[in-house]
Design brief:
With about 350 residues, the protein is an alpha/beta fold. The protein has two domains: about 110 residues, Enolase-like, N-terminal domain (Enolase-like, domain 1, 2-Layer Sandwich); about 220 residues, TIM Barrel (Alpha-Beta Barrel). It has eleven helices and 14 strands. The strands form three sheets. Strands 4, 5, 6, 7, 8, 9, 10, 11 and 13 form a nine-stranded mixed sheet that branches. A three-stranded antiparallel sheet has the order 1-2-3. Helix 1 packs across helix 3 and helix 5 packs parallel to helix 6. The longest helix is centred in the first third of the chain and has 20 residues. Bound molecules: magnesium ion.
Length: about 350
Amino acid sequence: MKITSLSAVYPSYQHTAPSWRTNLWQIVVRVETDTGQTGWGCGGGGKAAVEIVNGHFSEILVGRSVDSVSEISDTWDFLYTESIPYGRKGIAIMALSGVDLALYDALGKAEAKPVAALLGNVSKRRMRCYATGPDTDWYAELGFTAQKMSHRWTGDRSVDQAVEMAESARTALGPDAEVMFDVYMSWDSEITLRMADALSHVGIHWFEDVLTPDDLQELGALRWKIRPINMAGGEHEFTAHGFAEIARAGAYDIWQPDITWCGGITAGLRIASMARAAKAEVVPHRGGEPWGLHLIAASGCEDFAELVMGTRNAEKDVMWLGAPEPVNGYLELGDAHGFGVDPNEELL
Ligand SMILES: [Mg+2]
């Protein structure tokens, strides 16, 4: 199977905010092959990543053969090397992620298998999910047994706010539920220790992104002081090269690569294998979306998939059609070939 064309678009999202965060600048990548398969992938990086795919990667990939997981891995290495002058991290790798995922989708369709089955042993078919967002009551109604809440430090009152949030989640979701905080780099070491102390009676599974990804040494030291709370992070890191730095610093108990940003399934597999050696757990960022879900199903990632649920009745764009919906807080992997999703043409 040879690549006959490769292209990317930035969708016309309807529900946008004046910031990259609403739709996270996610792009759609399409690959066509000489055997008639169309592969779809999701990457990050917005219009800049679209330019990288259309203006560079497509020129050097047409004609290349991608008949196996190992040929996709070689293609990844080729694109990584070719983009080194402007790449290695950030938008170039977000673009590469979309290409990698499109190639996996095409290969799955060519071999009539879900992507997870291309990766080897599918050890998980039904995966436990956690809901990300503030709407605890809604998540409880839907049957979720785990919630991650956003918290931003805005001064001393933030400690009481965090305690209130955590206590109400614990009450609504039950004693066995997992409760986590994503603080999006708004705490420092001292605040993290204060929070660990203030929240100890609630039982918190992890603190996420307490410092920036440039503070790996400090995170590595802090990690041991907040036991039994786990230190989580990694959504802002790229490729196995980047995660090697995390491993060296011992920065996190839980690694959270974003499969549409960190380099796709190819990078996800390499990162998961590195995590095993580092005795870290892997819980991909947005792992309940198809891209992460197939990796979780067939790798050593934890049985714990993130769904960014937001709030009840909030309007949002549905970019990918056919993705599994959570039932009682679990997602089931389907049998459809590739990733089993198609882009919503209305947004392209
Ligand atoms: Mg996060």
